[in-house]
Design brief:
Elements (H helix, E strand, L loop, with lengths): L3 H9 L3 H8 L7 E3 L2 E8 L2 E8 L4 E2 L1 H17 L5 E7 L1 E2 L3 H6 L1 H17 L4 E10 H5 L7 E4 L4 E3 L3 H8 L3 H8 L9 H7 L4 E2 L4 H9 L8 H7 L6 H10 L5
Parallel strand pairs: 3-5, 4-6, 5-7, 7-8, 7-9, 8-10
Antiparallel strand pairs: 1-2, 2-3
Helix pairs in contact: 3-5
Length: 249
């Protein structure tokens, strides 16, 4: 029997097919298999490669390899074609099998493939349309040139109860810190403040995607953006200090 919690989680899942219709009104051939999404779509008259996940699936070695293969195929066969990553994941798959097989190496391989695409002239855009948690988020949305999110998306590195267990900081204290520090708080607005999310999309999603692909964000300015938005006050200062070999104040 399904629990009430599981039923509620299923109700909250976003239908990727409906999203694809909004993002790609000019047409697409995206298909889903075992919660992995892949295919192509038309954006402003140009073809883009689409990869992603659905069903809150965790990122295990199979999906990491599938995403990497799709990106490498695009680099090899379609020079300069933009890549769109649709993000809905509960994080890195926490299984003994994946850990023993070296899930970290598979994720690193995926990251290298995205970097190869970037250096080869492909623009890479990520969109969190449902869930984005922990390591699964890092290897999908955050690894793109720029990551965007829908208003109702769920984004967090770790739940506060788990964070409390690991850091040994009382959950009440973490909850208090989350009120003023976006690093501790979930939600797209907090990641927008930190610079991890470039923009939160609403309204015409097709136009928002078209505009995003027109902007060159290959240079990583997330720390600068986080400082400007007041969500990360030290990251860029540390980067500058290391680059200039000077001590922090």
């Amino acid at each position: 029997m399904q629990t009430a919690v599981n039923t509620a989680a299923e109700v909250k899942q976003v239908d990727w097919r409906a999203l694809a219709q909004q993002l790609f009104p000019q047409g697409h051939d995206i298909a889903g298999k075992d919660n992995f999404l892949s295919g192509t779509a038309q954006v402003d008259g140009a073809t883009v490669t689409v990869v992603g996940t659905t069903g809150h699936t965790p990122i295990g070695i199979e999906i990491a390899l599938a995403q990497a293969a799709s990106i490498l195929d695009t680099v090899r066969a379609h020079p300069g074609r933009a890549i769109v990553i649709l993000v809905d994941t509960q994080g890195q798959r926490l299984r003994h099998r994946d850990e023993m097989l070296g899930i970290n190496s598979y994720m690193a391989h995926l990251g290298k493939c995205v970097e190869l695409a970037r250096r080869s002239g492909h623009r890479v855009v990520g969109l969190v349309y449902d869930q984005a948690l922990s390591g699964g988020f890092i290897t999908s949305g955050l690894i793109a040139d720029a990551c965007y999110a829908l208003p109702d998306a769920t984004i967090r590195v770790m739940g506060l109860p788990a964070m409390a267990r690991i850091t040994k900081v009382p959950q009440e204290r973490l909850t208090e810190l989350a009120q003023s520090n976006p690093v501790f708080a979930p939600g797209p607005e907090n990641y927008l403040r930190m610079g991890g999310v470039a923009e939160i999309w609403s309204g015409d999603l097709a136009q928002a995607l078209c505009d995003a692909l027109a902007v060159d964000r290959s240079a990583d300015r997330r720390a600068v953006t986080g400082l400007e938005r007041g969500g990360r006050k030290l990251a860029q200062r540390v980067i500058d200090a290391v680059a200039d070999d000077v001590p922090l104040d």
